[in-house]
Amino acid sequence: MLEKIKATASFISEKVKRPIDAGIILGSGLGGLVNEIDIELTIAYAEIPNFPVSTVDGHNGHLIVGTLGGKTVLAMQGRFHFYEGYSMKEVTFPVRVMKQIGINNLFVSNASGGLNPEYNVGDIIVISDHINFFPEHPLHGKNIDELGPRFPDMSKTYDIHLRNKAKLIAIKNGITIKEGVYVGVQGPTFETPSEYKMFRLLGGDLVGMSTVPEVIVARHMGMTVFGISIVTDSGVPGQIVEISHEEVQEVAMKAEPKMTLILKELIAGL
Ligand code: HPA
Fold this sequence. Notes:
There is one protein chain. This protein has helices spanning 2-16, 88-101, 160-172, 193-201, 212-220, 245-268, and strands at 22-26, 38-44, 62-68, 71-77, 105-114, 124-132, 177-184, 206-208, 224-234. By secondary structure, the chain is α/β, with parallel strands linked by helices. The protein has one domain: Rossmann fold (3-Layer(aba) Sandwich), CATH 3.40.50. The chain starts with a helix and ends with a helix. 45% of the residues are buried.
């Protein structure tokens, strides 16, 4: 695996030839941030050696390098989900590559179901912590000591300084943001009302099908992580309505400009 990571990192580094300040992973319906990037290089996932190919609607499958908020960023427009059939090693491979290139800051976004009754559909939530409910662990198997420790600490997963900064940026721009715990599940089914209730009882504020694997791997390698989520539907008893992937994307796209503004200012301040 290490050889593959290094080969893919070299392939990208040779094209970029300068340090990259941040990696960004854009979730469902949240690819609009790319329009804010002064793009220098776009590479389709299919052209990147060892990269899996994204298949889900709304996930474009491009790696984009450019300038955002005065910083050099590498953005993934479209991520790899476990439910698509990829192994956890494949889902998290791009994050391994980011770190190998020299990227130390990871920004992740996603769409989620709201479990906290104080949340409304369309709310922007800064992820304060997560609960890993995936059936397979991205660090399962022999540890590669060169990448990180066998037993990584997870007590400070989502960087407190970036979380506090995000709140200040939101206030300054008149944007309401809240904080919460993200429960990562495998999908692809949305939750039954009873499952939403269970995840709330277990301590979750949000539930979604991504992010946790990438964040675990980023922390394994000591990267600084910031996560942000858009509540696209409610899992609160009495408020649950039928939903579809299209509706999730539609709600995400509406809230996306506010999320983008926060991410842009956060990155500018790195
Ligand atoms: N559950 C799981 N994943 C999701 C949801 C949800 O309600 N909304 C968006 N992604």
